[in-house]
Amino acid sequence: MTTTTKGGIVQLGLIGLGKMGGNMAERLRRAGHEVVGYDRAPGKRDVESLPELVEALSAPRVVWVMVPSGDPTKATVKELAELLSPGDVVIDGGNSKYTDDQVHDVMMREKGIGYIDAGVSGGVWGLENGYALMVGGTKEDVAKAQPIFDALKPPAPHDESGQEMPGAGFVHAGPVGAGHFSKMVHNGIEYALMQAYGEGYELLAAVDLVEDVPGVIASWTQGTVIRSWLLDLLVRALDEDPELDGISGYAEDSGEGRWTVEQAIENAVPVPTIAASLFARFSSRQDDSPTMKAVAALRNQFGGHAVRAVQAQEAERPA
């Protein structure tokens, strides 16, 4: 049997020791858990291969996959399906699409292996602050991994009487797929919040009237209804670079925003703010927007409005 403390697992196999996975391993070890880590980078890993990782764990095993979503996760889960034994549990803690989880669950169940999808939020700050966890799976499988989740999640808040408030930072959202679906919606909301903060910053910076833009944004972090951790991080970024001169305006999207909009369409749920924030990221990748070229041309055609030549526009750009 797996070595346990007071009813809790203290041994975990963790695959993927990057920024998130490495910090998660450290947080678990600080909580007294044993972590056997594997990563493609030789300097980070405790074992040299996935077979060695499985061999190093006592049954029933719990193995957490923390690698990029898509093909890397699919390949890892498929290999684990051949290496693990009935009664073991696999947790996918990456940003997989929830439909991938459902396929993986079927594959694992055929071999008697449990499967949990875990949406994880906390970024590089999770080591100290803890990680918000949204998990999907059976009650039995989640119970096997609960001590791991308890060690990773933030400390529970307390009410006015000093009693611990349950639920904060962790939720068993439903069956397999519910964890990553919840994290997908979380990230769609995150897109919209970041876009709103960015637009507010740009408007403040565009006028001469406001002389201390970073100071205004910092003033919002206390006592206002728009205070948040994201706002705190914007204050931190402006403290490091007040005019953000060292940062390109190119913003990537990691998939969850697209999937959120796709699901909104599938379920006829209007999400105009999230959709607009996703499209704004697409716009950020265009040096010279073909859409706006067409808009300028149309304005010239129907109203005789002047168009700006490319040469003039380039000449006005700062070196």
Automatic annotation (TrEMBL):
Its name, as the record gives it, is 6-phosphogluconate dehydrogenase (Decarboxylating)
Q: What are its GO biological-process terms?
A: D-gluconate metabolic process; organic acid catabolic process; pentose-phosphate shunt
| DNA damage keyword on record | no
* Organism whose genome encodes this protein: Blastococcus saxobsidens (strain DD2)
Q: What is the lineage of its organism?
A: Bacteria, Bacillati, Actinomycetota, Actinomycetes, Geodermatophilales
Per UniProt, the keywords (alphabetical) are: Gluconate utilization, Oxidoreductase
Which PANTHER family has this protein been placed in? Answer: 6-PHOSPHOGLUCONATE DEHYDROGENASE
GO molecular function per UniProt: NADP binding; phosphogluconate dehydrogenase (decarboxylating) activity
Q: Which residues cross the membrane?
A: none
Q: Which gene encodes it?
A: gndA
The record's section on Pfam families has: 6PGD (PF00393), NAD_binding_2 (PF03446)
**Stretches assigned to the 6-phosphogluconate dehydrogenase C-terminal domain:** 179-318
